Amino acid sequence: MPAAEGRALMLSWFQRPKAVDGGETAATEAPPPEPGAVRPDMLDEFPEPLDGIGNFDLPRGDDFEFEPGEEALLAEVAAAVAKGEFDLPLIPSTHIALLDLTSDPDADVGKMDRLISTDVALTAALLKTANSVLYAGTRRAETVRGAVLRVGLRGLRSVLLSLSVRSVLFKTNELAPLAEEVWRQSQSVATNARALAVPLGLDPERYYVLGLLHDVGKVPLLDILRRLAPRDRELRAPFIGLVFDRYHEEVGGKLAAAWNLPEEIVSVAGCHHDFERNETHRRSAALVHLAHAQDLFLSSGRPSEYAALATSAAMAELGLAAPMRTGLLDAVRNAYVQRLRDAAVA
Ligand SMILES: [Fe+2]
Ligand SMILES: [Fe+2]
What we know:
It is built from 15 helices and no strands. It is mostly helical.
């Protein structure tokens, strides 16, 4: 399928009624943070930090010491970003066709069944999701049709987008450990954002997709690093963190626009760290900012910083009264732990 056709098809799949938008009115109604919102026993229920390459997030304002060659490489990355010299990866055509079908409430399940069944990875992911704790019924879903009926069109859309991001992240083996961490973080932030959406009365699958794609700018940045990094030396995680921190929003906004994604995703991918500066989708940007901070503290074993999110600016932006905030932190921690369990049995 030509790229232009694929992009045109993507126009319709994320359309939603206005009513499910988070709205931008809560900022002025947010109650003042209360230190008492931090519950001490939260510290006893915390997951173990993850092994592996770890989180690339570089706290803003931290001093960064360049090692030899890194400053020159950063300048090359900056030039490539400024000139737009990066591939904008395309998602598989089967996925685009299915995404388009999921936007049609009268879509033919038989047609979806046939399309899904041509893709082994998609079939496996769909069955796994349908039988996960989030959707599981009294009997296992054993067929594609049964799985589609159980997860619904929105659930299918989340599965499709997860696989699409995965396929563009892992198109080569180069820098695979870095791609693994970007992938883990995308899924985790998506899960956290979905868990945040439920008690806030927002559409969970919409925020799952927003969480999944908010850092999509890291995908082309990995491509740039694959192309420019010297072959004889490993890239240090803090250096990757610096590259991501400086450029992933700019590149993410461009990629989301090139994929013709909905304006909300383009806006949030382009501006979520300083969410107060997001003029069109400030509350959504705050929600994914919070979901990302939750992943950072959960995955790196920092319980007191996690608990302190109850009084963060992002939490205040969501407009929840202080007593509800610890419940929100608990719900996300539970969803985070459940996702790890689901991943472990996969
Ligand atoms: Fe980000
Ligand atoms: Fe992020």
